[in-house]
Amino acid sequence: MHRFLISLTAAFAAALLAPTAGHTAAPNIVLIVADDLGWNDVGYHGGRVRTPRIDQLAFEGVELDRFYVCPVCSPTRSGLMTGRYPNRFGLHNDVIPPWRDFGLATDEQCLPQLLAAAGYDRRACIGKWHLGHSRRSYHPLSRGFTDFYGHLNGAIDYFTHLREGELDWHRGFDACRDEGYSTTLLADEAVRFIEASSSEKPYFVYLPFNAPHSPLQAEEDQLARFGFDPGKPRFGRNNNREGFGEQGRGNTKRQTYRAMVAALDESIGRVLDAVEATGDADNTLVWFLSDNGGTPQHGGNNKPLRGAKGSVWEGGVRVPSVIRWPAAIEGGRQFESLAAYVDVLPTLLAATGGGPTPKNEIDGANLLPMLADQAPAGQRSLYLGRRAVVTREWKLKGDELFHVSVDPNETADVAADHPEVVKELREDLARYEALTSDMQNLPYGAGHEGFVAPKNWNIERE
């Protein structure tokens, strides 16, 4: 079986950074990332959570039905920025916790650096970074962004913006004391950035929301929409192990989560409205995705897919994703071929009209020829980490094999029936895992004991 592996085939290599036929002007780019949004937590998947603005994006754009990410967020975010599998730089297995002196390797070339060379003068990171906070060399402003507003760590308090007892909310390198609900503040900033952008040159907005990741906190008006009764107890009031206060908790976790997703959806709608108001929505490429699957113990829902965040079952790594670019891609369709987080960088560079050639080998593919029906999707495999690899038909997870094209919920291990497929996928897996770096992020809890967060999460080291 011929398969897309580490090196691109000649056809893919020729198309990797090729512009889409019939389109010349580089688009504005808005890359929106939700945090821990489950497969069944968008309306267009039939979920009980209503997401009208995300649904609108799906109806107007192309739904990427087989879009894969990593099981947890820092690895996915690093792949978005580099187009490369994060085991190449030691980031595939875990996130970067507050007490860790580690970040995305500084010799990795990031998407905004490449877009700068393609003529994008304004490049904003607005939201959750989570790719290194201990050194200035890891900071978004050191990785090609011209603007940064948001937080460096994950799992901040939505209202106080604290992590480990210190303020983690920044404008540029400086602490920022803006008050408000973080989802709303991030949308406010994105709208301002879009409204201030010139029509003469394209802009890039990377908008990684921290919603609906825990801690579960929502504003009172959103909670009220989902039946919140202030006369009844709030969930977890006697079990505050996460160290966050009661502000924003509803009566149940699921109620609070649904309110958080509703706020996220409305914020995304405001950003889409700002794009529309510029008059250049047709030539604005909007890409929406979740960084990993949902967490049921924190309200997320991945049904009918098996598994959740932290696993390489489909529910942990197959996520909602939509791309909309009216000037170049016909919308209102579903793309059923494999796509992944590592495809974002080469696809966006191709959209610029060719873009600069990355200095490092890219693991992702330019999806534009396939999305524009100018090229067949071809065969490929994707590395999911944790001894797992997936193709359009099959998924190898450890020693188990699933025929995911006909059994997407992974109900039956068919390894014994298809030894030749197991053999081929093991060979693929071995090639991917041979890319692993000697430098590795440590397990999450390592180094936590005795850690004291720096004041306002100020970065002193270069």
Automatic annotation (TrEMBL):
Enzyme class at the top of the EC tree: hydrolase
GO molecular function, a single term: arylsulfatase activity
| Lineage top rank: taxon | Bacteria
On whether Amino-acid biosynthesis is a keyword of this UniProt record, the answer is no
Q: What is its EC number?
A: 3.1.6.1
Keywords in alphabetical order, please: Calcium, Glycoprotein, Hydrolase, Metal-binding, Signal
Keyword Glycoprotein included in the entry's annotation: yes
Looking up InterPro entries in the UniProt record yields: Alkaline_phosphatase_core_sf (IPR017850), ARSB (IPR047115), Sulfatase_CS (IPR024607), Sulfatase_N (IPR000917)
- For the Sulfatase N-terminal domain, which residue ranges apply? 27-353
Give any Pfam family that matches.
Sulfatase
Give the signal peptide range. 1-25
Protein family according to the UniProt entry? Belongs to the sulfatase family.
Recorded protein name is: Arylsulfatase
Gene source species: Posidoniimonas polymericola
